[in-house]
Write a structure and sequence with these properties.
Distance between the termini: 32 Å
Strand order of the largest sheet: 3-2-1-4-5
Helix content: 40-55%
Oligomer: single chain
Bound molecules: 5'-O-[(R)-(carboxyoxy)(hydroxy)phosphoryl]adenosine, zinc ion
Number of helices: 11
Order of helices and strands: EEEHHEHEHEEEHHHHEHEHH
Shape: globular
Radius of gyration: 20 Å
Amino acid sequence: MHLILGIETSCDDTCAALVTRDGAIRANVVASQGLLHERYGGVVPEIASRQHLEVLDSVVDDTLERAGVTLADVDEIAVTRGPGLIGALLVGVSAAKALAAAGRLPLVPVDHLHGHVTASMLGGDPIEPPYLVLVASGGHTFLARVDDPSEYRVLGETLDDAAGEAFDKGARLLGLGYPGGPEIDRLARDGDPVAFDFPRSLPGDGLDFSFSGLKTSLLYTVSKEGLTPFRKADLAASYQRAIVDVLLARLEQALEREGLERVALGGGVAANRELRHRAAALGAPVWVPPVELCTDNAAMIAGAARFGRALPYPEYLDLDAAARL
Ligand code: KG4
Ligand code: ZN
C-alpha cells in the first residue's frame, strides 16, 4: 500500500503523519508549542523555529512507530511549503528534503491552505467535489469552491483579521489565555449569547469578511462594563455568537450563489462548538473534520499531497519554503 509521510511546521505545531493513497490515516502526531508561546500572548517566530528543530526528528520517529512501520516502508514525502512563518517552514522543508533524498523518494510540496481545504477528504466518509469550503484559522479566513481536488477557487476572504485572530484578540481583552479560541469556546457555555449586541460586519456585495470592528467594539464594551466573572461569560458568549453568525451568513450566501450541495469546514476555528453545532442546520450536508484535523496537523498535508504534483529525486533539492504562495 502506498504510504505518504507528511510534515507540517508552518506555525507553532510540529506535526508528522502517515496517510495512505486512499486517505486512511495511519498515524497523526502533533507536538504543540502552545505553552512555550503562551507567556508572550502569541507565537514568537524565532522560538517556534528553534523548537521545530529540537523536536521534529522525534515527532517523525514517533509517527513511524505508531503506524508500526519504518522509513523504508514510506513511498512519498509531503511537506508544507507555505504560507507561514519562514523560519518555521524552513525546518520542515529541509527535513523533508533530507528524508526524501536519503531514500531517493519523490517529494510533494503542499500549500498549507490546500491542506485545510481538503481535510474533509480524509477518512472513511470523504466529501466529494464539487463542494463549498470555509477555512477559518488563526492566519486565514476564506470561502472557496472545490471542483477538482487538486485546486480551489477563493470566493471571498477576510479583508483584515482572520476569525481565529478575532478569537485570540478577544480572549486577550477578556484576560483569557492563548490561544483564545478554545478559552472563549469554554467560557461561552456559561454565558448569555444575546447579553451584548456586537456588530456583524458583512463588507461589500461579495463574500468577504471583516472582523477588526468587532474586536474594537469588544474593547469599548469591556472598558465600559468592567470584567466581573459573570460579565466575562456573557461577553465571551455574545462575542462568539457575533463571529459565528457572520461565518454562517456568508456560508449560506455562498451556497446559494454557487449552487453547491455539499459543505466542508476547516481550520482551527472549525473546532468551535457553536460553529460545529449550528453549521449542521445549513441547508446542505456539512462535513466537519474531527478537531485534530481542523487545527494544524500533517495528516491534511499528506492528504492534500495525493492531489499534488510529486517532484522526483533530485528535482526538489533546490525547493524553497515560501512565507507567501
Ligand atoms: O488552523 P490553526 O490550528 O492554525 C492556523 O493555521 O492558524 O488555527 C488556530 C486558530 C487560533 O486562532 C485558535 O484560537 C483557533 O484556531 N481555535 C478556535 C478553537 N480552537 C482553536 N477558535 C474558536 N473555537 C475553538 N474551539
Ligand atoms: Zn492552519
